[in-house]
Write the structure tokens for this entry.
Amino acid sequence: MSQINKLTYVDGKLGAPTNGQQTTRVLFNTIENPGTTSGLIFFKSFQGLTNGQTNLVQNRLDSSESMVIKTIYFAQFTSAGALVPIGGTVSQTCSIIVGNQTVVKNLPIQFNQGTNGQAYDRLHENAGAIVNDQTVSTALYQNTQPCEIRLLTDIVIPPQVAFEVRLDSTNGAYGTGAVLCALAGYGKIFSAGNSF
């Protein structure tokens, strides 16, 4: 089933409007000053976050919106804004919970980041890594690239259903800057049916 058909099927089962505008959708959420911890939960708290730190005000989409997640993206920044490896070099897993269902469970991300990580499906191959303060343009691993994982299955976020993303580790060093999580994919937003 294609992502468009899957989204239409889920929306139809939930009674969501069918006159939405199809679009590319990116949802993002930031956790400021997380420090060293065993886990982060994204899309849970929006208090005090500005438009540059999140593009949602609650952990659910509006009644006429839905989305298929195709990519999970994590990035960690220092308080000075420099990109650094996520959580240091400790093993980490990602889980996505939609409603009361865990739809991605303990997906390891260490293969895709850190000094020994390999770029998943070569998204960031040859993106350049810093070795002895020299940029190596033919590097096959990601040193300070964001962690980006393309999902092989379509994960649907239906309208008005709460969701969250968990990043679990053993004493991940997330620092005093910020950690960003973004979900990207195909979506549907409200459309009154007018065309221009």
In short: The longest helix spans residues 3-14. Residues 116-129, 138-142 have pLDDT under 50 and may be disordered. The helical segments are 3-14.
